Amino acid sequence: MLREIEYMNLRKHFRPAAWLAVVFSLVLVPGTLFAGLPMASSVVNAKLLKLLETGPAFTAKAEFSVLGKDRQQPNIMPATVAFMDGKLRMEIDWSQCKGPEIPEAVIYQFKQLGMDQMTFIFRPDKKSVVSIFPKLKSYVDTALTKEESDALAQNVKIDKTRLGKETIDGHNCEKSKAVLTDDKGGIDEATVWNATDMKDTVVQVRMTLPDSSLTLKFKDIKLRRPDAVQFEAPAELTKTTADKLALDARNKLAEGK
Questions:
Q1: In this predicted model, what pLDDT tens digit does every residue of 11-57 receive, in sequence order?
Q2: What is the pTM of this model?
Q3: Long-range Cβ contacts of 242-246 (<8 Å, 24+ apart)
């Protein structure tokens, strides 16, 4: 019975696009992923992408840190990222993630299933997310939902107000308040640090929401255009479906592997 419950939790939330929202924005809203990982808003995710589009292409190490309602212990998720022309690649090792909203039992289950290492390729131009599972030698290509596509298609107006200058990891930065307004009048605010010695690249973003506070920080930034192949599914891997992966996961859990 326990194995069946674990499978149902896995199958219910087995959506790569949702995983991408989790690892990119980590904005806590009602609902959970894999019975514990925080879900996220695709609209906020889209606006964060718009902020990145104001700078040049780059590769970097990223750290996502989010404080929940109690504002005590943060959830921390490191990643390796590449960004170019609105396309985003993120490599995640779940064993490196930690925090009260990231249960160790879930990470252990990911390891059992060979899903603890994942790569997400977000392609707004193709309205899809490619989720790569290197240990399983497979990938899933998932179409964005209409809500996600509509959010990305909106024109977002960004109004900035200078707040001063600060140094982040040795970079001279312009600190500003950014007000992001979409076509429907939806407004979000963020504090943004742009490195003036790196072509105004965004090195840190902080957003405060009613139930959480998100900080996204980039390190080891390389201002270069990533190889275009990084934003495509590897030819040597096998294309599969979310249903097939979920079924395989169910079988592994049933066998106790």
A1: 333 344 344 344 433 322 222 333 333 333 333 467 778 888 888 89
A2: 0.79
A3: 242/14, 242/15, 242/16, 242/140, 242/142, 245/14, 245/133, 245/136, 245/138, 245/140, 246/7, 246/10, 246/11, 246/14
* b/e code 77-104 from CB counts within 10 Å (16+ = b): bbbebbbbeebbbbbbebeebbbebbee
Name the token pair of 21.
């929202």
Give the C-alpha separation, 157 to 177, whole Å. Answer: 13
* Other C-beta atoms lying within 10 Å of the C-beta of residue 220: 10
pLDDT at 40: 34
The Cα 64–Cα 20 span in angstroms is 13
CB 32 within 8 A of CB 72: no
The helix/strand/coil state of 28 is coil
Beta bridge partners of 188: 180
Nearest to 40 by CA among 58, 66, 59: 66
Q: Are 12 and 242 in contact (CB under 8 A)?
A: no
Q: What is the pLDDT of residues 110-125, one digit of tens each?
A: 788 888 898 988 888 8
pLDDT single digits (tens) 48-99: 788 888 888 999 999 988 877 666 788 888 999 999 998 999 998 988 888 8
